[in-house]
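Retro notes (design track)

What went well: tokenization of the new backbones is finally stable.
What didn't: we kept losing track of which sequence belonged to which structure.
Fix going forward: every design gets posted as structure first, then sequence, in one message. First example under the new rule, 494 residues:
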């Protein structure tokens, strides 16, 4: 192998080596707080993130391992975002896991292995590599969900996640096998060439795309493949819920782009119709079901389903009438949307973790009652996150939704304009349950004791997270252009 092969996969090699090293080192750690393991994990994530940042700044596109892996702007931007997500997830989780006797070496090792799976998915350029990364991430998350073995609700959530996840992986693998059967190649560029030349067996390919879409919809948590989301979000320990809710969404978006845009763009007329159906159903089920939830984690689960509906709307507006003029804007807006959503989700669950105490989960909406009187700065940060999820300016969530709506309107097609109106109407419905949280914090009478003082480091992270959500909105132009440029380069290299 030449040096280029190793250079392309260097972040993944470092991540794997450090995950194995940390697993061994932790065997000799006797400190209950596991400070050595924690700092080694965080240093690893920071180091790998710095490598992705350097690759991103270079702007180069490289191929390695016989063309099975690609190093490009899109992959490194998503992988860098995933590193930030895992970094914050582990930092927020530490004070929560300790008192519950869940702060074990397995948590840190599995988190790094999940990040490795995400990184592999972001750089995959081969159908088998996509599946390899997906299973590595999924199996790590299944094990993390079951970390609290003596808790019935967590065990039930882990079983549901594993069984339904295995079913979805089967759908995806079957779909990929049909794509291979129709095109005769496993390389994503080869699939694109076969589809473009008309040599692929269209009937088999369309059926394969249906199964691929089903598998991708499950990983995104889009309706009607959303059954696992509320139960897993509620049943898993909150720290693990954050791990599931944030970084994996970036990986799911990555394989959507790799499979559907880089490989099956010639079939866009078929899979975009499926995305429109998934988007509308997700917006409807997510927003309407969230209204009646009293558990905060379950409400945020249905919120996630609705948010994924918005994401899919952007992905459905790229190819219009066989023309690809709007592809970079549409898919770039969806990429910006998922990055913005993950940033907001990190803070939302991070604040729930911060409010939790040894014998108190702080996962009911009523648990936030009177928070503005007890801890006004916490209420202010939560308000920023709720406003962002609801799409209220000047939060980054508003500009993310605006970018997707602009992509729909830019098509100048009546059907897409109607979809934009439907999306706005469902966003208005969604604003109800987000603003209800704000109402409980600011206008309801306090219940129970005030939150205990926590680590000043976590407090600072929450403040930075909130400031990023607040300030990135008006300053979002640079990130949005970076997302569009990343997608444009992917298409130019195809």
């Amino acid at each position: 192998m030449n040096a280029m092969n190793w250079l392309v996969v260097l972040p993944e090699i470092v991540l794997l080596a450090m995950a194995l090293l940390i697993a061994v080192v932790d065997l000799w750690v006797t400190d209950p707080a596991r400070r050595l393991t924690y700092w080694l994990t965080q240093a690893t994530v920071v180091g790998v993130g710095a490598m992705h940042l350097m690759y991103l700044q270079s702007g180069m596109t490289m191929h390695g391992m016989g063309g099975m892996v690609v190093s490009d702007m899109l992959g490194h931007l998503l992988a860098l975002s995933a590193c930030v997500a895992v970094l914050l997830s582990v930092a927020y989780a530490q004070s929560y896991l300790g008192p519950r006797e869940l702060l074990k070496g397995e948590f840190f090792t599995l988190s790094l292995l999940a990040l490795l799976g995400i990184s592999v998915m972001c750089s995959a350029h081969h159908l088998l590599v996509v599946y390899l990364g997906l299973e590595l991430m999924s199996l790590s998350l299944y094990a993390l969900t079951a970390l609290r073995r003596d808790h019935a609700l967590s065990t039930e959530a882990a079983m549901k996640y594993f069984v339904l996840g295995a079913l979805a992986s089967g759908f995806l693998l079957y779909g990929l096998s049909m794509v291979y059967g129709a095109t005769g190649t496993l390389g994503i560029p080869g699939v694109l060439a076969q589809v473009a030349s008309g040599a692929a067996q269209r009937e088999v390919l369309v059926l394969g795309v249906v199964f691929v879409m089903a598998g991708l919809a499950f990983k995104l948590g889009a309706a009607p493949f959303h059954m696992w989301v509320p139960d897993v979000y509620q049943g898993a320990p909150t720290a693990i819920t954050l791990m599931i809710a944030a970084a994996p969404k970036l990986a799911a978006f990555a394989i959507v782009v790799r499979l559907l845009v880089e490989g099956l763009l010639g079939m866009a007329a078929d899979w975009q119709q499926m995305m429109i159906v998934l988007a509308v159903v997700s917006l409807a089920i997510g927003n309407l079901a969230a209204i009646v939830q009293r558990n905060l984690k379950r409400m945020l689960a249905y919120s996630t389903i609705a948010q994924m509906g918005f994401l899919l709307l952007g992905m459905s507006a790229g190819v219009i009438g066989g023309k690809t003029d709007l592809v970079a804007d549409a898919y770039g807006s969806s990429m910006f949307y998922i990055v913005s959503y993950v940033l907001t989700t990190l803070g939302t669950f991070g604040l729930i973790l911060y409010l939790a105490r040894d014998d108190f989960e702080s996962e009911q909406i009523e648990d936030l009652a009177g928070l503005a009187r007890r801890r006004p700065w916490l209420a202010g940060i939560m308000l920023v996150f709720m406003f962002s999820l609801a799409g209220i300016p000047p939060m980054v969530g508003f500009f993310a939704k605006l970018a997707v709506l602009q992509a729909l309107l830019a098509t100048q097609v009546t059907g897409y304009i109607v979809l934009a109106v439907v999306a706005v109407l469902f966003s208005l419905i969604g604003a109800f349950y987000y603003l209800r949280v704000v109402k409980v914090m600011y206008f309801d009478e306090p219940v129970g004791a005030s939150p205990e003082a926590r680590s000043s480091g976590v407090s600072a992270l929450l403040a930075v997270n909130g400031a990023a959500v607040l300030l990135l909105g008006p300053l979002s132009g640079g990130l949005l252009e970076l997302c569009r440029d990343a997608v444009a380069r992917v298409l130019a290299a195809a």
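Added context from the reviewer: The chain has a mean pLDDT of 91.
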